[in-house]
Amino acid sequence: MEIPKTYEPGKAEERWYQHWLNKNYFHSTPDEREPYTIVIPPPNVTGVLHMGHMLNNTIQDVLIRRARMLGKNACWVPGTDHASIATEAKVVQKLRQEGIKKSDLTRDEFLKHAFEWKDKHGGIILEQLKKLGASCDWERTHFTMDAEYSDSVIDVFVDLFKKGKVYRGVRMVNWDPEALTAVSDEEVLYKEVNSRLFYVRYKVAGTDDEWLTIATTRPETILGDTAICVNPNDVRYKHLHGKSAIVPLTNREVPIIADEYVEMEFGTGCLKVTPAHDINDYELGKKFNLATIDLFNDNGALNAHGLHYEGKDRFDVRKEIEKELHDKGYLVKTEDHINKVGFSERTNAVIEPKLSLQWFVSMKELAQPALDNVMNGNIQFHPEKFKNTYRHWMENVKDWCISRQLWWGHRIPAWYFGPGANDYVVAKTAEEAQSLAKEKSGKDISISDLKQDEDVLDTWFSSWLWPISVFNGLTRPGNEEIKYYYPTNDLVTAPEIMFFWVARMIIAGYEYLGDLPFKNVYYTGIVRDKLGRKMSKSLGNSPDPIDLIEKYGADGVRVGILISSPAGNDLPFDSSQCEQGRNFTNKVWNAYRLVSAWEVRELEQPKSSVMAIEWFENRFQTVLAEINDLFDKFRISEALMAIYKLVWDDFCSWYLEMIKPGYEQPIDSKTLEATKDFFENLLKLMHPFTPFVAEELWHQLRNRAEGDDIIIAKWPEVKTVNSSVLSKFTIAEEVITNIRNVRKNNNIANKVKLELFVRKNKDVDTAFDSVIVKMGNLSLMEYVSEKVNNANSFIVDGSEYFIPFGDTIDVEAEKEKINEELTYTKGFLKSVQEKLKNERFVAGAPEQVVAVERKKEADALAKIALLEEKLTTLG
RNA sequence: GGGAGUUUAGCUCAGCUGGUUUAGAGCAUCUGCCUUACAAGCAGAGGGUCGGGGGUUCGAAUCCCUCAACUCCCA
Question: What pLDDT, in 10s, does the model give residues A120-167?
């Protein structure tokens, strides 16, 4: 049967994925084995796969597949997140295209549309993950709005409320006037924008013509001013302390207060204070008991406090008020100014700090165990540098605003029974709420009198329970699965969501199960394009992962994306890396083609093959130990590189060439069997990274019994290494490379057999001579006591090697080469000798270090002598 | 404004508590080969004063200080 010259991934991938599914290999149930668990960072339910997912999920699959081979009960839980803001925005947009306004729908009608949308687009991303080869336990697929999951979210809200950790309060929130919702601090992007600084003068009350000038970037908020603030140390304004100023246009009188918060150098050193519309002013307002005047409607237009500007948008008012201030003589001047403005991550609207009644989680106490257990190493971050960032945040943690003015999500289980600020209860159901309300109010209240809070919970308020709720750890406490799978092992995610998600999962873990949610957190980098830009939909610079898989094969893409992505570093992605990955799968494919084509016969095993096998055995063991170590340290791409080199360089370029019989020659069975064993072990190491081609060749290489699949094969065992074999081979390798160089320099074809004479200057091990003869294509290898004239020569490990080829030798070129080597060696010798001449070095450095330097000196001296001798011979 | 991190070959990165490192790998580059496993390949080669400056030390890519550039987080 003709085996194709290049590996064709498409069909094999589909076949093997289906095979794995049929065999139920991805499914896990608790048993007596050690569990190994990963919960997927749930992608947005309506999302599509992008390169960031590819990186993230490939790493998870590598970890889970290796764990499976190590004999652990591997469980990778997949699922999706309802992503309230993003999904609701998409549904609103889709309805708008159909001419339906959200405001025309009831909550139930809107949710019906939303669920339709979710059913249509939801889960596409999970199907895409299958193409990548993700070995998730699909029977465990969860969605953050599934009934039982939602129960756990509501339970936690009620519980935290009972513990006094959830409270309702007026707070300055980041208001998105477009989405008409509060957004969390983390969803605000600060950008530098060119704006203007307006210098406006306020009259000092009780004077005829004394003015003070303030500088502001937001003149439209003047109408909400309730104080002027100066620095108490500012001599320019000392006389004004305790006086009042008249706010332009409104003619309101406001106090002049003094606080060190004001920077004397900024602007004029006078700050206008608008507690309703700036977080710092709000704090000042609290401190000085100032009035707050809220100027804006929810949509960013001015309300009645805005006087004649009522109903106009904040940015229009900025322009108009500038003109009015100017016309009335209040505007002193304007300056160009660069300041940072917050934008909504979702709608890109300018965020308006706004006082609003919201629900909060009080974080300080909850955060403590989460901080401690990362700092003390119970939970490990990879790379560790992220601990610093984490600590900084956790030590300064602020209360978490968890209410969102949206419909898509978990509705807040608070029920209002009256107009008073405290006329509400928190309960899971209307019935419970009713009895609580009766109790609280002392009145007879019917269910229809209760009005449930309109808001939903922040999406992260459900995803922080992910590692617990996918095992129903809250709704069915202490169940078999939560006991078995929790704490999970490794979490693979992006550093951007360290606070949104990672920190909060840790908090929830300690609060609800008294234990960490995972032992290791592996932070991936951001996938960037060649120009270093973050890959994003809006830039259109992100390749479609599915296209890449079709072009290079899933294995090729997996290798391409992992080959240069150390933990925590950004990954500049270029599709040429996938090409490298595809080439790798093809290389292995062809190695198989070679091995499969040999005809076995009962032959004596050549010496060179015996040595090759002994060498590769040891080489494999060495690299295996390295790979295991790299995995333990989460240095995934380095582990991949080690495997890549082991397969390509050691196995294909060296080992197979060493044992390869001549063209159309048979092979002895011992060598063939050993080779197939090696091949199997290599496939095992490859399998986590390139599962498809590994499974394919596993089955091609040998006839397999039912169920003998590489996905559940046993990861190779580490054995002790005979390092002397390795060092002997290194010398043989160097001799062979030198022979090849002689061929190349003299234009001698590979087919032409050469003679090699060796003058040993010390004991030379001859174990690999047969390998040298074969790989160098020698007709003769002989040990001599005299140097050989008219020969190309080289020195390896103190011995001289001669290849007579008098006719073509280029004496000048040869001399030049020797001189170059001589210069280098002399330079090297000099640096070593300088060290050794230094008495303080000899006295101060450890004995071993000095001994090493002495050996370097001796070797260099011997080499120089040989080189100089060669030069004289050449004349 | 506060904090953290990064800076080693054209690119992406190794190089642990300073000493077999006049610095390694992969890719890219260059040269020669279509040698029947693979040109998606083989063989060989070139390429870095380790961001600049200063210091500690017998010895610094590695430790300290300083300057510069870039990145991220927080306000």
Answer: 988 899 999 999 999 999 999 999 999 999 999 999 999 999 999 999
Which among A246-255, A462-471, A564-573, A863-872 has the top mean pLDDT? A462-471
pLDDT at A808: 52
A649 sits within 7 Å of strand B by its CB: yes
Strands A754-759 and A211-216: unpaired
3-class secondary structure, A847: helix
Helix axes A554-562, A545-552, angle to 10 degrees: 110
pTM of the model: 0.88
Q: How far is the CA of A860 from the C1' of B59 (A)?
A: 20
* Both tokens assigned to A60: 């998870």
Residue A732 to residue A541: CA distance in whole angstroms:
49
A216, pLDDT greater than 60: yes
Exposed, middle or buried, A807 (CB in 10 Å: 0-12/13-18/19+)?
A: exposed
Q: Closest nucleotide to residue A751 (Cα to C1')?
A: B35
DSSP, res A498: I
3-state secondary structure A551-620: HHCHHHHHHHHHCCCCCCCCEECCHHHHHHHHHHHHHHHHHHHHHHHCCEECCCCCHHHHHHHHHHHHHH
Q: 3-state DSSP call for residue A379?
A: coil
- Which nucleotide has the shortest C1'-to-CA distance from A850? B19
Assess whether A564 (CB) lies less than 7 A from strand B.
yes
Report the half-sphere exposure of A566 (CA within 13 A, side-chain side): 6
pLDDT in tens, A388-430: 888 888 888 888 889 888 899 999 999 999 888 889 999 999 9
Helices A51-69, A124-132: inter-axial angle, 10-degree rounding:
60
Residues contacting residue A100 through CB under 8 Å, at least 6 positions apart: A113
Average pLDDT for A67-87: 94
pLDDT over 70 (residue A861)? yes
Q: Is A521 exposed, middle or buried (0-12, 13-18, 19+ CB in 10 A)?
A: buried
C1’ B23 / CA A548, Å: 37
User: Is residue A16 over pLDDT 90?
Assistant: yes
CB < 7 A to strand B: residues 807-836, chain A: 824-831, 835
3-state secondary structure A125-176: HHHHHHHHCCCCCHHHCEECCCHHHHHHHHHHHHHHHHCCCEEEEEEEEEEE
Residue A77 half-sphere exposure, CB side, CA atoms within 13 Å? 28
Token digits for A498?
């360290």
Distance, CA of A830 to C1' of B53, in Å? 28
Nucleotides of B under 7 A from a protein CB: 2-6, 11-14, 19-20, 22, 25-28, 32-33, 35-45, 57-59, 72-75
- Positions 242-261 of A with beta carbon below 7 A from strand B are none
* Residues 135-194 (A) near nucleic chain B, CB < 7 A: 185-186, 190
List pLDDT tens digits, range A478-502: 999 999 999 999 999 988 888 889 9
Spatial distance between the Cα atoms of A344 and A845, rounded to a whole number of angstroms? 61
A430 contacts: CB under 8 Å, gap ≥ 6: A415, A447, A450, A452
Cis link prior to A543 (omega < 30° from 0)?
no
Assess whether A633 (CB) lies less than 7 A from strand B. Answer: no
The whole-number Å distance from A198's CA to B69's C1' is 34
Handedness of CA A319, A325, A326, A328 (dihedral sign): positive
What number is the ipTM of this complex?
0.94
